[in-house]
Amino acid sequence: MIPTSSQQTYTDLLIQYQPKPIKTEEEYNRALTAVEGMMSGELAEAETALFELLVLLIENYEEHHYSMGKSKPVATLESLMHEFDVELTSLVEIFGSVKIVKEVVNGQRKVTQSEAKSLAKFFNEHYSGLSLTALDFGQR
């Protein structure tokens, strides 16, 4: 953990920690420890700036070493259908037929822009707390 006080400036913290791109597991663990330590208290402005920088460095390292890959629109649709027990027939109004719904779910057919908007609207209206957009289904 990085010992901090409200009297320290951002420059002081940078000198103390000397952040740089994370290249090894050891550096990664050191950065995680520092961030976790900073999460346990209220941060001064300079500490918040260092915290944000460390988080960016950690995210960059994780993206390159622990990449989960981008979520595909089909995976998003399948996940939502599974989570909310949505049957294929419930999506016929959006796609026109069960056959087309199956093709989309199986990755054999892409979702069009209007279908993506309709899917977002469908899930947002039927399942509270969601704020999906056409982007979640691969369209602008």
Describe the protein.
There is one protein chain. The chain contains seven helices and no strands. The longest helix has 21 residues, at 45-65. It is mainly α and 140 residues long. It is elongated. Helix content is 58%, strand content 0%.
Summarize the structure.
The chain is built from 7 helices and no strands. It is mainly alpha-helical and 140 residues long.
Structural descriptors:
7 helices; 140 residues; 0% strand; 58% helix; mainly alpha; single chain
Q: Helices and strands: which structural class?
A: mainly alpha
Amino-to-carboxy terminus distance: 43 Å
- The percent range for strand residues is under 5%
Give the overall average pLDDT: 85
Please mark out the parts with pLDDT under 50 across 5 or more consecutive residues, or reply none.
Answer: none
User: What order do the SSEs take from the amino end to the carboxyl end, as H and E?
Assistant: HHHHHHH
Shape label: elongated
Tell me the total number of β-strands. 0
Fraction of residues in H or I helices:
55-70%
Radius of gyration: 22 Å
What does the largest sheet look like?
none
What is the helix tally? 7
Blueprint of the fold:
Blueprint: H1 10-17, H2 25-39, H3 45-65, H4 73-83, H5 92-95, H6 98-105, H7 113-126
Helix pairs in contact: 1-3, 2-3
